[in-house]
What we know:
- By secondary structure, the protein is α+β, with helices and mostly antiparallel strands.
- The chain has one domain: minor pseudopilin epsh fold (3-Layer(bab) Sandwich).
- The chain is built from 1 helix and 8 strands; from the N terminus they run αββββββββ.
- It has a 4-stranded antiparallel beta sheet, covered by helices on one side. It has a 4-stranded antiparallel beta sheet with strand order 4-6-7-8, covered by helices on one side.
- The protein is rod-shaped.
Amino acid sequence: MVANLNKNNKGFTLLELVLGIAIILVLVSFLYGGYSSYRKYICKSNMLIIAKTLALDIAHVQQLTSRNVLALSIIINPDKNGYNYMERLNVRRRIVFREDPSIYFTDGSMVKVSFTGNGAPQATGSFKLGSKDLPGYQILIEVQPVNGRVVIREI
C-alpha cells in the first residue's frame, strides 16, 4: 500500500508541539532559578541596609550622649517591625521596615539602647534580624560592653 501524502498539510505534528513545549519549559526553568536567587540577594541586601542604618543610629546616639548634648536612646519595637529613635520620652524618629514587611526582629536580649555620659552603654546585648523569605539566614546586631561598639554579623 502506498501512503497518501497530502502536500497541503497545514499545522504542526504532535512531535513538533512536544518539542516546542519542552524548549519553553527549559527556558522558564533557567529564568526561575535566576529570579529566585535574585530575590534572595535583594532580601539579604535589605536586611544589611536595615542593620547598618540601626548601627549608625546607635553610634549617633552614643556620640551625642557622650558629648552631653542630648539624652537619646533607641527602643527596639519588634511588634511593629522597626525601632524608635527617642529623645528623653519623645519619639524623634520612627523607623519601620515598610520596604520589606517580611523582615522582622527575631529575638534578642536588648530592647533599649542608651549610653552613659562617658559613652559606655547602659546595657549590652544583641538582637537579631530575620526574614520570612530566608528562614535560615539571620543578622546579629551586637552592642559590645565598655566601648559600645556595634558589631553586625551574618549568622
